[in-house]
Amino acid sequence: MLDTVFYFVLNMSIAACFVIAVLLVIRQIRPIPRRVVYPLWTLAFLRLVFPFAFPTDWSLFNLTGGLIKRLITVETITQDLASTPGISATGLEDFSMMNFVGAAQEYLPIEYKTETLRQVFVSASVIWAIIAAAMLIAVFTLFMLTRKELTKATHIKDRLYRSEMLLSPVLAGLIRPKIILPTSLHPDSPECQMILAHENVHRRRLDNLWRLLALCITCLHWFNPFAWIMLKSFLTDMELSCDETVVKRYSKEERKAYAGALLNFAEDKRLLISTAFGQSGVKVRIVNVLNYRKLTVIGAVVSALFLLAVVVVLMTNPQLRV
Prior knowledge:
Blueprint: H1 2-26, H2 34-37, H3 41-49, E1 70-73, H4 74-77, E2 96-99, E3 104-106, E4 111-112, H5 115-150, E5 154-157, E6 160-163, E7 170-172, E8 178-182, H6 190-204, H7 207-220, H8 225-247, H9 252-264, E9 274-276, H10 282-290, H11 297-315
Parallel strand pairs: 6-8
Antiparallel strand pairs: 1-2, 3-4, 5-6, 7-8, 7-9
Helix pairs in contact: 1-3, 1-5, 1-8, 5-7, 6-8, 7-8, 8-10, 9-10
């Protein structure tokens, strides 16, 4: 059964490579704000965790030609369950999974074309599972250690705390996150108010939860270098989009002050599952803040249409070939 799971994971990983590659190109288009690019990474996450999609004529994968060995419909996979009372694939027949590997002839469980392929996938699935489990355990352990350290923070007011172990303000926690300031930062200073605005954007968007999900998904696809590129780019775009959301209300002089705050709290410390104000490419963030341009009404409409088009192109599968 483990090799069946790995077979599906491998095909999802290959499909996600195309999506990640497109998103990496999109994020290089400078007129597109990072707060538009940031939610697009959800498409890569979905490709990495959900194997099925609806087919359309507009799918990017219509251009992949012979790379897709077969389109596996939900009906194909569940045909053995169709005779079971209460189980039906009605309404899901059009959903399909792209099979890039082409090593199987039956599914759920996988039946391979040759005994050699079976042995290869059984062995590979064991290696995959051991490393993925070890990485997930490491993520959980580091998260718990970080959480333990941050419990020593001193309460100031509301969800605001102070800690001597920090060099940069962070938003810590998943369910009810709290903002923790370094001792060098006065909570009533203008600089702190800008930082609080930044961290509150992270809090409203549940960015710590998204960070955790991105880490776990990358652990499951540890063998795919595109997954690691996705993680790095996603975390960078998280901070850039947060900066843009904050400074869109600021004047030019206030944006300069915000850039100065970024520079003051630039540091190399990383806290797992926590968003630190001074992390993720401070130089790039400062340039992005100083060069920020507000979206016009036309720009907002174009961005919305662009998002819709990207979703359709990347999140649908090619049409079944008759």
